[in-house]
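PROTOCOL LOG
Step 1. Enter all chains and additional molecules of the complex.
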Amino acid sequence: MATGGGQQARPTRPSSFSRVSSSSFSPASSSSTSTSLPPGVRIGANGAAFVSSGIPDLDRILGGGFLVRSVVMVMEDADAPHHLLLLRNFMSQGIVHGQSVLFAGPTKEPRSFLGTLPSPVVQKEGLKIKHDVSDVQDKEKGLRIAWQYKKYFGELTAVDSHNRDKKQEYSSDFDLRKPLERQLLNSQNIECISTQDAFDLSKLQNHCLTFVSKLSLKDGINSNAGRIAIQSLCAPQCGYFEKDWDMLSFIRSLRATVQSSNAVAVITFPASVLSNSISKRWQHLADTLLSVRAIPDEDKDLAKLLTGYQDMLGFLHVHKVAQFNSQVPVILDASTYSLKLQKRKSLVLERLNQAPVEGSSGVSYATSGSCSSSKGSLLDF
Amino acid sequence: MAEGLIVRSLRDGSLPGEHAPALCLEDSLPSPLASHSHAVFRHLLASLLSTGTGTAVVLVAFHRSPSFYLSLLSPTFHNSIRLLDCYSDPLAWKSNHHPPPPSHSPQNITLLTNLNHLPHFLSSILHLAKDLGAQGHDRVTVAIDSVTHMLRHAPLPSVLQLLTNLRCHEKISSLFWLIHTDLHEPKVISSFEYISTMIASLQPIVQLPDYANANISASITSLEENYSKAKFNVRLKRRNGRVKLLCEELLIEQGSVKFSSVPSVSSVVAQNLIPKVQFNIQLSDKERMDRANVVLPFEHQGNGQNIEIYDGRRSLSESQKDPSSTKIGGLSEQKRSNNNKSEKGEIHYIRDSDDEQPDSDEDPDDDLDI
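Step 2. Run joint prediction.
Step 3. Record the structure below.
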């Protein structure tokens, strides 16, 4: 492995699969190489480069963000437009960092989608952050932790304090109520393509190839990262909808294109309109696979089961997380998160919390639910 | 209620900037008499037309002849409906061999023979919609008798494109269609559901019995119920991104359709969605404050006050605030309330005996001789 030599100097933890341990090494490496990286790209575990997804919680869950040179797929739910939230944050983050963005959508006017992109929240920085950093350092002096435990505490605070400044640049919080400024949208490196009337995907494929070749021409060695966002690739109203194998070969060629350049591709597709076997093939082609689900409205049972049900927009399920340069799989603590709007403006992902159990009934809903699903007959003594 | 919601949504049309609402009415074989769903279709048609002078309908008739529909509606509504006749001559046999007779057809029926060419189809619908608009109807709804028939003549993506274009068009305020689910592959049905905002389907009240095991004779008689009743399931996609699921009972009586709400059947909660739900062990601010206010049962509270020994005879000032406290001699009881019933948590500690010195029971292991 190319990065093996660099890693031997650091103490290894044999049985830790969590991402927190590996991302603690990033301050040392990123501070030395940050000057040579294009904006918005960060080096994470195993020497892999990440770009932010636009949602800080999602970056944390995926262990740094979306891997550069990977294809991220989002399985849509036919009942809800939550995949658009993910796409919007992804594209806004790219535009804010000045990266090139290619957008393809199944509407006649894909440019109008740019009008819905959110703008970043203006942080009241300065005072607050510096205060935190000095606070943390004082705490560390006062608290005498035995050296073998320091590695658990130390890395969390160290990561926070080192990366606080960097984090603001790498991944911003977006205000979904405020649209992105016009000047940013009019820049040269944003392209929009419509896929509705296309009878095959060759035009889109050519666009992607030229987009990616433009990326590497720019600066020579450290070219800017590029973002390709394709909305509803297999939307049924597109002309190529019945050509399953053509769509699969398009995705394969997109993967190859993206792997040989500094780009990330995010593709959303409604999995329900594809046949099962083709949908499975699509899912296997993804490096990172997410899915969004709609939740039923005014569902009393669900409201009893989960806290914060009223504020939830939907669920996000993480099926697969991409790995680079490593044989160790990513095992997440939880794979289903709820999408919520914090203060009605920025998107947060939260773990699902079970609502407090009714004291009188004794049995929690979850167990009674599983009992009823079996529909066994009641035992009569 | 479900039916009312649907009619209202179709009547109201779309907000500016949104696509028109579209209802997909699904019909399936287990619910006998495909006419059930057709009855619902006709019912929707009638209720839309009868709601006022503003609404007009362009009806694309594939399944029944236009005169059938006209006979259903009272003559007052004949002006607010335009029919596109795709029933009489879909394959253009008559018009190819015999020249069309001088039109005896009433004003509001337009014959269409070239069904393969969807752009022409779209423009005919829009032409009729404009016609109606010119007459003063500001809300035009397009009803398609059945999309299944359309799919015979044109491929799926173009039919979907047509429906999407209709939804985007400013003259059309809402759209609904009927589809027979058994005649298509599942992915076709899910594509139609994908582009619609409301999905209504009819299911039989009594499921078909399992012939291998069940007692057949008893269940067959109950199947008769299916001929008059059906379950009407509606799935509405709301603007906030959530899905509203409704279930009602449908009664067909002498050709007219009645909806009644069913005693609430617990819908399948998305149990499969939530594999791992954790307990939230974080305390909210209110809970933290309550915890800080709890008086601990130890006699020495650590705040320099005199040690008070509660012996069960005198009442502490705190217990007066909580009338529901129980005083059982010889038992020590802890009660800690975090909910909003009482502002302060209370703990009542009753000493076992008077002989013990205060704080002498701090470390019960002291008397061990190791």
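Step 4. Note key features.
The two ends of chain B are 77 Å apart (CA to CA).
Chain B touches chain A at residues 155-158, 160-161, 163-164, 168, 185-187, 190-191, 193-195, 235, 237-238, 240-245, 266-267, 269-271, 273-280 (CB under 8 Å).
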